[in-house]
Amino acid sequence: AEGYDFQAIQDRWLPVWDELKPFEVDTAGAAAQSGERPKKYVLDMFPYPSGDLHMGHAEAFCFGDVLARYWRGQGYDVLHPIGWDSFGLPAENAAIKRGVDPREWTYANIAQQKASFRIYAPSFDWSRVLHTSDPEYYRWNQWLFLKMYEKGLAYRKASWVNWDPVDQTVLANEQVLADGTSERSGAVVVKKKLTQWYFRITDYADRLLDDLDALEGQWPAKVLNMQRNWIGRSRGAEVEFEIEGREQKVPVFTTRPDTLHGATFMVVAPDSDLAAELAEGASEEARAAFRDYLAATQKQTEIERQSADREKTGVFLDHFAVNPVNGERIPVWASDYVLADYGHGAIMAVPAHDQRDLDFALKFELPVRVVVDVRDADGAPLPDPAESGVATAGEGVLVNSGELDGLPKTEAIARAVEVLEERGTGRAATTYRLRDWLISRQRYWGTPIPILHHENGEMRPVDADALPVELPASEGLDLKPKGASPLGAATEWATVVDPETGDTWTRDPDTMDTFVDSSWYYLRFLSSNDATQAFDPAAVNAWGPIDQYAGGVEHAILHLLYSRFITKVLHDLGYLEFDEPFTALLNQGMVLQDGAKMSKSKGNLVEFASELKAHGADALRVTLAFAGPPEDDIDWADVSVQGSAKFLARAWRIADDVQGAGAPRGASFAEGDAGLRRATHRLLADAPGLVEAYKFNVVVARLMEQVNVTRKAIDSGAGVADAAVRESAEAIAVILSLFAPYAAEDMWAKLGYEPSVALVEWPKADESLLVEDEVTMVVQVDGKVRDRLTLPASVSEADAEAAARASAAVQRAIGDRQIVNVIVRVPKIVSIATKP
Ligand code: ANZ
């Protein structure tokens, strides 16, 4: 027989699979919706068409595919679709740089990725492909927007936004990195006031937070924490302060209402409306100082403003507030450490117990009053914050606080809230870090917002039957970013005359954040080709939610949060029975090279296309799966694709040998070699648990072992004609098909079966073959046999030693002598040497 030749094998099976379409599922059919067969919806985060596929894609789609193929093998109907997240800036930037149409660029890249995927062969259902930049898709983004608008969940407001001066576009908070730069362009992000569209995700903050608990153990703990921190729920109180000379009271948010008696000044955010109003009524001098200070503040990033070790700055606003618990007059300042869009944009400053307030008080010589007696571990009072410069935030007993005196902190917090509520000057309150989702972008390559504006300021939604609002051709439009959407210049497109009234309306020129596109795409896969609705609720409820989602940790916050939000909205609108989209989540690590992220500029790029060409899909996939736990990063410098190819050749040769001289198809395995059968069935018994625990690397290692013992049985044991060899070869082909679909299919054919091995249900492990053999192990102490223990033949060194040490007879022999050496030879002997 000829040798293992990956190229020949790929060429043999690709056309067969093209013809067979083994992974198409009929999700609309009654059987598929009645739950007759169990279902699994397995989805990989869909790719962005920025060029050809890269190693990161290879990895992510390998792992998702292992799971999709696994569940098929367990007898499930598996939906495993693919689509493209094809709107967004890179297409536009390429268009600007190279003068190509964003559409052409996008669809050419998609075509290239499709061709590469075909060879890489993830088990996709190709009949339901979608691209978010198709009008047939984004029409339903517009439908979703209108639903949100109807429900009051989409609204417009003027506010300070993060502005990327290079890409000339608004960024969501999430797109601003910790150092204050744009995640896309790397530019330092500045603030700009604009009227923008928002989705009211803050209405869902509690549910988005509380429902994370049910995902515990199903999602990586790290992702759950990132989501929790992002939502950032903080419980405390809202306290109302009167400000002299101003009618409305000013609310502040505090987590420490117990410290109200220690509030010696108030601070408002310089960029808040309140600060502007107060400055308006201030002296000429204070007004000028405020103006300068505001200008300086607007150059700061949010991160800089929150940094604890920055020297405090601020200006007095020439106003006094009245502390509601003791009637004290306290000065009102503006300082950039108070953020305009958190809580109420104003705080009561308690310098004795809050470090930022203390730093500020010491800088501007404001009073510091201790109201909680905080002690150290020995019960000694901590030094006075005004002296030490260190605020005391810990547990303690209230002092200088009237009726709260003597109460421990926690009780005082509760009591203070009661007092505020009794007097009508405050109440229990909860604040979130989460902000509403800013969804409008001043860019071309996205979904047009389906709203019409009248000169008189009126707005109205585009009629549902007039959707989609299609993007005009890019030809003739200046796509260069300039702070206003290029669509505004498409006059013909933008002008709409109402046939009834003759009134002229103008289309909203902005496009949607592409995170809108990806927030619900998993629903569209159930009816990608349906021109009448966004998704079929019956099909979606039969197949949703996603049982297994897989993708990069870079989406740990935004994409997952937005999808969860939109799922809850669609649930509340009555479309979905479930209200969480992703039951289980796998985050793969990154593919690195020499410990560094790969990039063209670093010159350490491993090209997916050339690897695929050189080694074939199977060897690449096996290498990725075998490199380590899927959550870990893979360093391409440490892996051996050649090693994987060798393993595949060894596996394949077993089927080849069976085809030549092995037991025939259908032979009874019961007569086969017991040792090899035991190994085969142990593999069959262990593999499901390992796959479900994402231990793909261990499954590959076990396959390698199985190939070795089978080879041994052929060459020096039972011989190739033994039925156990065929049984093993069949099990190897079936399990190997998770990782190496081509080699497995070829093996399956050599074993006499029709394609495809991918649709074969896994053979069940025979329990009777799993009973462990037992052996007798001798334990010696200083050369004398002291005990004989009965242990499983497969006992580990550690377990053997532990059993030896636990033996009463052995312990007696050792007495109070000291153990100096232990030699373990599993499963036969443990030898212990001692000295006095
Ligand atoms: C008085 C006080 C006394 C506070 C004390 C803390 C300690 P988290 O936990 O993050 O929610 N704060 C409120 N609004 C703010 C804003 N817009 N910008 C900056 N700081 C703001 O923090 C809540 C605390 O942060 C609030 O409780 C308030 O300071 C401050 F011993 O009020 B505290």
Write structural notes for this entry.
- The strands form nine sheets. Strands 8, 9, 10, 11, 12, 13 and 16 form a seven-stranded mixed beta sheet that branches. This protein has a four-stranded parallel beta sheet with strand order 2-1-24-25, with helices on one face. Strands 6-5-7-17 form a four-stranded antiparallel beta sheet.
- It has 27 helices and 32 strands.
- The longest helix has 21 residues, at 641-661.
- The chain is globular, with a radius of gyration of 34 Å.
- The chain is of the alpha+beta class.
- The mean pLDDT is 94.
- Helix 23 (696-716) packs antiparallel against helix 24 (723-736).
- It binds ligand ANZ.
- Ligand ANZ binds at residues 234, 253-256, 259, 269, 338-339, 342-343, 345, 347-348, 350, 353-354, 431.
Helix fraction by DSSP (H/I, runs of at least 4) = 25-40%
Structural class: alpha+beta
Q: How many strands, what sense, and barrel or not for the largest sheet?
A: 7 strands, mixed
Unreliable spans are none
* Rg: 34 Å
In one word, what is the shape?
Answer: globular
Distance between the termini: 66 Å
Number of helices: 27
What is the strand content? 15-25%
What is the averaged pLDDT score?
94
Say which molecules are bound, naming each kind only once: ligand ANZ
* Total number of strands: 32
